[in-house]
Structures are given as C-alpha cells and as structure tokens.
TrEMBL record:
Entry's Gene Ontology molecular function annotations: phosphopantetheine binding
Record flagged with keyword Cytoplasm: no
Keyword hit for ATP-binding: no
Xref: InterPro entries: ACP-like_sf, AMP-bd_C, AMP-bd_C_sf, AMP-binding_CS, AMP-dep_synth/lig_dom, ANL_N_sf, PKS_PP-bd, PP-bd_ACP
Protein name: Carrier domain-containing protein
Keywords of the record: Phosphopantetheine, Phosphoprotein
GO biological-process terms attached to the record: amino acid activation for nonribosomal peptide biosynthetic process; secondary metabolite biosynthetic process
Ranges where the record places region Disordered: 367-395
Organism whose genome encodes this protein: Phytohabitans suffuscus
C-alpha cells in the first residue's frame, strides 16, 4: 500500500479509470498448505463489499474507524474502504500505541474512536482486562467488530455488561474479506452466547451449504459452505491448478464459479449461520472427533483460568495427545490437579487434555491470532498431584503401580493416584490392561475407567480372581 503524499484535486486524478474486472489488490495467504498464494480481488468485488459493509455497519461521516490489522492482512480492506466511502475517518494509531502491549481503552479515548475491529484472541484478552478492573468503555465507542476465530461464551457475557454493540463477522480472503455479519442482541439468548452465529450474508456473497455431492443440504443440516456472487475473487495469482481446485463451477448456475471454503456450517431456523469447524483440520484423537473450542470454553469456566488454547501434540508415531495451554487470572494460581477434576465434571474423559502448560500469556501473531507455532511443547515433568502419593499396600497393588508407572513414564504411582489425572487416556489404558494380563492379572479396559486408582483396580482384579 503506497502512502506517499500525492497531489490533491480533480486535476490530479488518474487518467485511466480501472475496469470492474481489473485487479484491485492481491493478498497473500498460506492457508492449510503452508505455501503462500496470492488471492486476486477485482474492483467490482471491492466496490460492492465497501458499499454493502458501510451500509451494514451504518457508517457515517462522523465515524472514526481504527486501523488495527497488519497491512498484509485482508481485514485492512475492511478498515479502510467502507469508512472512506461513508465519508468517515480512518485512525492510524501512533507507533507508541501499537504492538502486543497496546492499551486499547486508552487508545479509544485518546483518538475518540467510534468503530474498531479486533481479532477474537486479542478481544478476549481486552474483555478480560475490562471485566477485571470494572472500567466502563469510553463514550465515543459505538460499535466493536470481532472475527478471525471462535468467540468464547464467557467473554460474551462479560461484554454484554459494557453496553456497546458487538458484531461478529466471518469471511475468507478469496471472497473479499467478510461475507457474513451477526449483531449480538443486547439481551442475547443462551443459544447465541453459547455458540455465536456468524450471521447472514452481504448481498454480494451468494452462500450455498452443500453436501459432498454438491447438493444443497436441508435447513439445519451440516454442510460445507460455498460462496458465490460478485464477492468471489479472480483466483490465485499465477497458480491456475490451485485456482481450479478451490474456485469450482457453480452447480446451480452454468458458467459461474463458487469458492469452496472448507468450512462446515449449518443454517438456523432464523436464517443465521453457525460455523462448526474446518473440513480438513478437524482434530481426531484415536478416532474420536474433537472440537478444541469446546474444550477451551470449558477450561475458561474454571474460576482461575483467564485464557485457554487447546492443540494436539504428537510425541511419536501416531501418539497424538491433547495439550491445554492456560493463563491464570490476575493474582491467582492454577492447580492442574484441580483443573483436571473440574474438566472431568464438564467433559467426556477423551476431551480432557493429557497435559497442561501454564503460560504468562498466549502468544499471538501480528494479526492478533493465536500463534500455534510459538506454543511450547509439554515438558516431561511429572504431573501435579493434589496430595503426596500413598505407597501401595499389597503385592498386587505394587505390581499394578509398577505397570501404570511404566506405561505413563513416571517414577512413582501411589495407590490413590488417578490414572487419568496422571496423564492416562484410553490408548494407555489398553496398554496397562495388556501388561496386567501378561502378568496374570484379570482386567479389562472398562475396569480401569471404572476403577482409575491402583487401590480400586486391585480390588476389582481380586474380585475377578
């Protein structure tokens, strides 16, 4: 983007007016392939998006819109052109007030901002800080837009106390920034707070929810989102093969194209869409489908947890484990053992992370998203125990404690230690049972789930023999 000073006035306007099909900009994105690809957006798409977004956000000449996004991120387009079209001002924050440590509240007050858009991960932290200090928002702020990642229900509850409208947006670089908008009602329903919809489409985005055969799914059914209409970009610069794979023929309109989003959605009875997950990045642990956002939401309900991220760590081969990263609330300390027990009451056993890593802050990219590459791998330190381990009291307990310790790769297992709180899971349970059976101890995997301590497991084995 060229910001050099240019002569002002009609006499200095460009002589050549771009055609609607001319390229307006190119934004590079890596996506799931990891290889940069330049999405080409044409003037017709940009003009339609700017006009419709200005109308949807009710932007006017009195608005002051914060420029927050990185210049290499397509949200920059949403921060510039709609507000310019409406006659408002774009506010570029001074260098001293940018970066990860930016004080958003001070910036809003100083620059009299009326509208701003923040990535969800950054917004989560800001809302937590606001709730912690109980400070009101500056009076100039009339609207906040949030997007990029799933929004935590707990933060929505905190935000509703502040009285400023919130809009949730969803969009893809290849289809001109944002395609759907959802305005959270002042008194939002439990359903909206639990799973914030992505809303309804702009007129330039023709949305289709299709099954694997490219047939429309019934209302309420889950399908992949395809985006058509004026918002669809030209394709990937210099990559015709990749363009053909993602920009596919419109099954309902010969000669037209739709963009295959790779996102699973469903349409509610009120017409709003709900984002569910990615088609190609659904996490599966031992054949079970896992939604990290569901686990993160449960973790954030713990009174000591301020922020949480869940990811998969592969230790060796196909040994994939869920790892939970947590940031403690101010002036508190998280007990991992207590957190495990809390999650055990909130979630099925297979959704409880095998390991937890406590961080001072969740690392973010320059665009404000969670930087998964900078999340440290879990260490080999022994798991935290709620109490000192009690030694086994019988030869059978000693034998079982030794087996469990070997499988979990810990030095000591007490008779009252919970197998799952020490990092065990269903696959490791099978290994424990297999070794026990080799040693002549009659057990089944179900026994370990129903009797997760050495003491209880020994009792179950004794009853069987």
């Amino acid at each position: 983007m060229l910001l050099d000073a240019l002569p002002d006035g009609a006499d200095h306007d460009p002589e050549v007016v771009p055609a609607p099909g001319s390229a307006a900009y190119v934004v590079y994105t890596s996506g799931s392939t990891g290889q940069p690809k330049g999405a080409v957006i044409e003037h017709r798409s940009l003009v339609a998006f700017a006009r419709e977004t200005a109308e949807r956000l009710q932007l006017g000449a009195g608005d002051r819109f914060l420029q927050f996004a990185s210049p290499g991120f397509d949200v920059l387009v949403e921060e510039l052109f709609p507000i310019w079209l409406a006659g408002g001002a774009v506010v570029f924050p001074p260098p001293a007030m940018t970066g990860p440590g930016i004080d958003v509240t001070v910036l809003v007050e100083r620059e009299r901002l009326t509208v701003m858009e923040l990535p969800a991960a950054f917004w989560h932290e800001w809302v937590r800080e606001l709730d912690g200090i109980g400070a009101p928002l500056p009076g100039s702020l009339r609207l906040v837009i949030v997007g990029a990642e799933r929004v935590l229900p707990e933060r929505l509850v905190m935000w509703q106390k502040l009285g400023v409208p919130l809009i949730h947006v969803y969009g893809i670089t290849e289809t001109t920034v944002s395609s759907t908008f959802f305005r959270l009602p002042a008194k939002a329903s439990e359903a909206d707070l639990r799973h914030l919809p992505i809303g309804t489409a702009l007129p330039s985005a023709d949305l289709r929810i299709l099954d694997p055969e490219l047939k429309p799914v019934p209302q309420g059914a889950v399908g992949e989102l395809y985006i058509g209409g004026v918002s669809v970009g030209r394709g990937y610069l210099g990559q015709p093969g990749l363009t053909a794979a993602r920009f596919v023929a419109d099954p309902a309109c010969p000669g037209a194209r739709v963009y295959r989003s790779g996102d699973l959605v469903r349409q509610r009875a009120d017409g709003n869409l709900e984002f569910l997950s990615r088609v190609d990045t659904q996490i599966k642990i031992r054949g079970l489908r896992v939604e990290p956002a569901e686990i993160e939401s449960a973790m954030c309900r713990h009174p000591q947890v301020a922020h949480a991220v869940v990811t998969v760590h592969e230790r060796a081969g196909d040994d994939r484990r869920l790892v939970g990263y947590v940031v403690a609330r101010a002036r508190t300390r998280i007990s991992v053992a207590d957190l495990r027990r809390f999650l055990g009451r909130e979630l099925p056993p297979y959704l409880v992370p095998s390991a937890f890593v406590q961080l001072e802050a969740i690392p973010l990219t320059t665009n404000g998203k969670v930087d998964h590459d900078r999340l440290p791998p879990p260490g080999d330190e022994p798991p935290e125990r709620a109490e000192e381990p009690v030694p086994p009291q019988t030869p059978l307990e000693q034998q079982l404690a030794t087996i469990v310790a070997e499988v979990l790769k810990v030095t000591l297992v007490g008779r009252n230690d919970n197998f799952f709180e020490l990092g065990g899971d269903s696959i490791l349970a099978i290994q424990v049972v297999a070794r026990a059976q080799e040693a002549g101890i009659a057990l089944s995997p179900l026994d370990l789930f129903e009797h997760p301590t050495v003491a209880l497991l020994a009792q179950a084995a004794a009853l069987k023999s």
